[in-house]
């Protein structure tokens, strides 16, 4: 029988992911180098932070003899899609608990249809119960016996530990590393994996100012305490999750055309827009290299929306 690690290796992830320099006038004029860490190229079905966060959870599930993965998400969750794909590729049963009871009677949107096509069982629950999904009595009603529960967005201690590899791959490559944040697991691990002379900036795509405490909680769970030099830039959510602004749209279109790269709009575009604004504000001294993590692929996500 193939081991779980061998089954994952057989999916041939592109690791370490490529690091490419982008010649952008706005940066070169100020003596700053812009690098893109192309995590979007790791795997076509588990791109970006999806691979880095799911891999350790899949290994843990297989090693503990769990044959079912249960996780949570909204109707357009990238994480639900990636979990469903991982289940199909590696032979796990998958259950997706979806926020919004009212969706149960409607035709599935393309993202949920993709989950279902990958064999995911979808369970729709009302928003009040969904908010209480981490409580033992709510979980007990949802979870079958041989099941590994992965939290919303895939961020748990194992995921944060998985993302340390991203930081390690970037050692020596840039003084500053920028990443978009949703649930905070990627930043928690990335910052822990960087060298002592590097710093990470997280760009939350949600409003609310709750993320700093969450990244600290994840670092405590994964590493026993705060790790690495990181901070959040809360100004670039552009109205909140899946919201945009004319400035962000214009920036993304222009950057895409200039560099012939499609930017994933919900996360990556906001981090890159934030970095470019910080550059304009003089936040990076000449001679600094800034690496922006491309945590998701444009076509993967646009095809689900
Ligand atoms: C493309 C993309 N980038 C960044 C993130 C944010 O990652 P995290 O939830 O670990 O903060 C997500 C969500 O998982 C995502 O789908």
Automatic annotation (TrEMBL):
Please give the organism: Streptomyces orinoci (Streptoverticillium orinoci)
Q: Which cofactor does it need?
A: pyridoxal 5'-phosphate
Give the Gene3D superfamilies listed for this entry.
Answer: 3.40.50.1100
Q: Which UniProt keywords apply?
A: Pyridoxal phosphate
Domain Tryptophan synthase beta chain-like PALP as annotated: residue spans: 28-296
Q: Which residues form the signal peptide?
A: none
Q: Return the similarity comment.
A: Belongs to the ACC deaminase/D-cysteine desulfhydrase family.
Protein name, entry field: Pyridoxal-phosphate dependent enzyme
What InterPro entries does the record tag this protein with?
Answer: ACCD_DCysDesulf (IPR027278), TrpB-like_PALP (IPR001926), TrpB-like_PALP_sf (IPR036052)
């Amino acid at each position: 029988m193939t081991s779980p690690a061998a089954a994952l290796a057989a999916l041939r992830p592109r690791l370490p992911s490529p690091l490419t320099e982008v010649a952008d006038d706005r940066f070169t004029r100020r003596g700053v180098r812009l690098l893109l860490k192309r995590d979007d190229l790791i795997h076509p079905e588990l791109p970006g932070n999806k691979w880095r966060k799911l891999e350790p959870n899949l290994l843990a599930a297989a090693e503990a003899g769990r044959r079912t993965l249960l996780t949570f998400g909204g109707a357009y969750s990238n994480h639900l899609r990636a979990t469903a794909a991982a289940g199909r590729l590696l032979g796990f049963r998958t259950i997706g608990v979806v926020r919004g009871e009212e969706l149960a009677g409607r035709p599935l949107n393309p993202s949920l249809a993709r989950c279902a096509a990958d064999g995911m069982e979808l369970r729709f629950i009302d928003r009040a119960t969904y908010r209480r999904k981490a409580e033992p009595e709510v979980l007990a009603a949802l979870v079958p016996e041989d099941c590994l529960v992965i939290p919303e967005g895939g961020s748990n201690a194992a995921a944060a530990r998985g993302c340390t590899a991203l930081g390690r791959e970037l050692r020596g490559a840039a003084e500053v590393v920028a990443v978009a944040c949703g649930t905070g697991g990627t930043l928690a691990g990335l910052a822990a994996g960087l060298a002592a002379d590097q710093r990470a900036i997280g760009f939350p795509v949600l409003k609310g100012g709750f993320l700093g405490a969450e990244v600290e909680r994840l670092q405590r769970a994964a590493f026993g305490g705060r790790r690495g030099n990181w901070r959040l830039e809360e100004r670039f959510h552009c109205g909140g999750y899946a919201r945009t602004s004319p400035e962000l749209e214009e920036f993304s279109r222009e950057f895409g055309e200039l560099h012939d790269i499609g930017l994933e709009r919900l996360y990556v575009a906001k981090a890159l827009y934030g970095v470019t604004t910080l550059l304009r504000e003089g936040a990076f001294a000449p001679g600094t290299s800034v690496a922006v993590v491309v945590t998701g692929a444009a076509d993967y996500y646009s095809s689900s929306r």
